[in-house]
């Protein structure tokens, strides 16, 4: 699914809006119908990396797709709320997304570190509990630990404040490095009261007790949402998918969108709708905004 863009890659507001696609499942069609019928009671939940921002080799260079903020600004005033649910620190997602101070995004919420942190556009501040002590312990131990186990050349550590991530995408064999490190890093995390969250060629060591499913469910309860759209692309989005599936079984319609990739087959298989990466997500959001008038 493409998006009308000018020669610089930016969304062209004068171009015709893309057609709203039809979900392949009955539950997805019911979710979309509920959102269209009563948008003021709908919440749109979105992952950041791989969903609103294309995946890049260096996460520090990840930025929202050029059309993402215009699409969100067009859609957000027409629904109950938009929540960006990400494993990144909330402030980093806000900066890399360009979400602060944008007209139309006054009620955007960013649930960072899987919901541990929260940034509200209204206050432009981040709220969060005290950091887990295990993160500091792992931070001190991790470089030497990787050296001792003979970590693959090309792996590197990303500092995420309330978590740490070991990336293998730059290794000669990223998948083999990922598999070789998963067990040892899981053991290291457990010794310090943390868990390992696997992703697309990344293993994140973080505190337990919160995931995207918990964060999304709590936010939907807070807002009194009567329907939900959630879009994601990675293993960390599976709990959010499960949360929407649970809500659907309880009578709350929902639409699950996979920002298309071939690395996470389970997410793709459970989605009601698969779109073509961040550009496809932007096109979907733009089409939804246009359909709501």
What is the topological layout?
Blueprint: H1 26-37, E1 42-46, H2 68-75, E2 81-85, H3 90-97, E3 109-112, E4 117-120, E5 125-127, H4 133-148, E6 156-159, E7 164-167, H5 174-191, E8 195-199, E9 202-206, H6 212-223, E10 227-232, H7 238-249, E11 254-259, H8 265-270, E12 273-275, H9 277-291
Helix pairs in contact: 2-9, 6-7
What does this molecule look like?
The protein has 9 helices and 12 strands. The chain is of the alpha/beta class and 293 residues long. Helix 2 runs parallel beside helix 9 and helix 6 (212-223) packs across helix 7. The radius of gyration is 19 Å and the shape is globular. The two termini are 21 Å apart.
**First-to-last CA distance:** 21 Å
What's the pLDDT, averaged over the residues? 91
User: How do the strands of the widest beta sheet line up side by side?
Assistant: 5-4-3-2-1-10-11-12
Low-confidence segments, given as residue ranges, are 1-11
Q: Describe the biggest sheet? A: 8 strands, mixed
C-alpha-based Rg, rounded = 19 Å
Provide a count of the helices: 9
Helix vs. strand class: alpha/beta
Number of strands: 12
- β-sheet strand percentage: 15-25%
How much helical structure, as a percent, in the residues? 25-40%
Order of helical and strand elements: HEHEHEEEHEEHEEHEHEHEH
Described by the principal axes of the CA atoms, the overall outline is: globular
């Amino acid at each position: 699914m493409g998006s009308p863009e000018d020669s610089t890659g930016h969304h062209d507001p004068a171009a015709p809006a893309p057609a709203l696609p039809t979900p392949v499942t009955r539950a997805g069609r019911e979710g979309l119908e509920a959102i269209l019928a009563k948008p003021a009671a709908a919440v749109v939940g979105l992952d950041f990396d791989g969903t609103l921002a294309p995946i890049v080799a260096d996460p520090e260079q990840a930025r929202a797709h050029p059309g993402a903020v215009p699409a969100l600004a067009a859609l957000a005033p027409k629904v109950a709320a938009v929540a960006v649910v990400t494993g990144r620190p909330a402030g980093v997602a806000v900066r890399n997304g360009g979400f602060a101070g944008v007209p139309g995004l006054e009620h955007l919420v960013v649930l960072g570190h899987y919901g541990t942190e929260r940034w509200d556009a209204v206050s432009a501040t981040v709220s969060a509990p005290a950091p887990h002590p295990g993160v500091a312990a792992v931070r001190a131990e991790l470089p030497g630990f990787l050296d001792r186990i003979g970590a693959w050349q090309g792996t590197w550590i990303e500092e995420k404040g309330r978590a740490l991530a070991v990336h293998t995408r730059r290794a000669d064999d990223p998948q083999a490095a990922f598999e070789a490190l998963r067990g040892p890093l899981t053991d290291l995390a457990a010794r310090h009261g943390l868990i390992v969250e696997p992703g697309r060629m990344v293993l994140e060591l973080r505190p337990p007790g919160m995931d995207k499913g918990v964060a999304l469910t709590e936010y939907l309860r807070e807002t009194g949402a009567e329907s939900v759209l959630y879009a994601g692309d990675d293993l960390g989005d599976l709990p959010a998918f499960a949360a929407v599936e649970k809500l659907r079984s309880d009578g709350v319609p929902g639409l699950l969108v996979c920002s298309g990739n071939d690395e996470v087959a389970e997410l793709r298989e459970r989605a009601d709708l698969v779109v073509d990466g961040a550009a496809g997500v932007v096109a979907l959001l733009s089409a939804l905004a246009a359909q709501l008038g």
